Amino acid sequence: MTLSVQSKNGMAHIFHPTDFSSPSMAAFGHALRLAVDMGTDLTIMHVDPDHAETNFEEFPRVRATLTRWGVLPREGTKEQLIQLGLGVRKIKAASKDPIVSVMQCLQQSPADMVVVASHERDQLSDWLQNPVAADISRQSRITTLFVPELSKGFVSLASGECRLQRILIPVDHRPSPQFAVEAACVLAAGLKAREVSFHLLYVGDPLHAPHLRLPGIPGWQWQWIFSSGVVVDEILAAMEKTDFNLVVMSTRWHHGFLDALCGSTTERVVRHAHTPVLAVPVHESPETAVVKG
């Protein structure tokens, strides 16, 4: 997905799968803030493997949340919700395989971004003992925001306040990091983040770092970080050293035999990160340009 900061953000539909857990509520807050600020539709889906009766009142309360955030007045109406440019759809399904249900929903109504909680061991705890969150992203090939259960994230569910000040972008020649750069810019612009520091991490010889197009937006700063060692370890070390609000990574998910066994770099970072990670699938390499100094 290639997006331009100068044009309309290109987002029309955000998809959020939930298991009603506390981590899923944190992810819901991020999905709702993104949908409101970017003027997109929002689909919230719950899959019940036990075929129990699920009341729609159990779903996260959109209007009540927006009222608490001060976006809607008290007793806000559906019409006022629509005036925000936000269309909300709630879906419940009964299935022993949440991946199949989610993929069928996304095939019927394609999304531009998935926002999902990543639980310990990357499981949606109340669904199945499988890496559901990563599987949804890998199979759908949709840009996915993972919100770890041990992270406050960059959106407060209580107030709706968004704190997106420091973004880490690990870069390499493959997959093309330009996709991650553009996605990070679109997200920051969509959330109206005016003072942002983007940190580009390259593990290797600085002379061999990839060339990137970096927009010159007032208030946005670009910094390079160079290190040597094991890529995943260096990414996690950088996250431990600096309090980043978000990590953005280009990904091809499983690529080759070793990745199939151990997981891709992105998947391993998601598995251990306590910071939200935006995984941006790369379908083809965009044209690269020299970095603007």
Description:
By secondary structure, the protein is α/β, with parallel strands linked by helices. The chain has 2 domains: 13-148, Rossmann fold, CATH 3.40.50.620; 166-281, HUPs (Rossmann fold). It is 30% helix and 22% strand. It contains 9 helices and 10 strands. It has helices at 22-38, 62-69, 78-83, 98-108, 132-140, 178-190, 231-241, 257-262, 265-272; strands at 13-17, 41-48, 88-94, 113-118, 144-148, 166-171, 196-203, 220-227, 246-251, 277-281. Strands 3-2-1-4-5-10-9-6-7-8 form a 10-stranded mixed beta sheet, with helices on both faces. Strand 6, helix 6 (178-190) and strand 7 (196-203) form a beta-alpha-beta unit. Helix 7 packs parallel to helix 9 (265-272). It starts with 12 loop residues before the first strand and ends in a 12-residue tail after the last strand.
Labels describing this entry:
293 residues, alpha/beta, Rossmann fold, ten-stranded mixed beta sheet, 9 helices, disordered N terminus, disordered C terminus
Q: Quote the average pLDDT.
A: 83
Spell out the helices and strands N to C.
EHEHHEHEHEEHEEHEHHE
Radius of gyration: 19 Å
Structural class: alpha/beta
How many discrete domains?
2
Q: Treating each run of at least 4 consecutive H or I residues as one helix, how many helices?
A: 9
Number of strands: 10
Strand content: 15-25%
Termini distance? 26 Å
| Poorly predicted spans | 1-8, 122-130, 256-262, 285-293
Spatial strand sequence of the major β-sheet: 3-2-1-4-5-10-9-6-7-8
Q: Report the principal-axis shape.
A: globular
CATH class of the largest domain: Alpha Beta
Helicity, as a percent range: 25-40%
What CATH architecture of the largest domain would you give?
3-Layer(aba) Sandwich
Q: What's the CATH topology label of the largest domain?
A: Rossmann fold
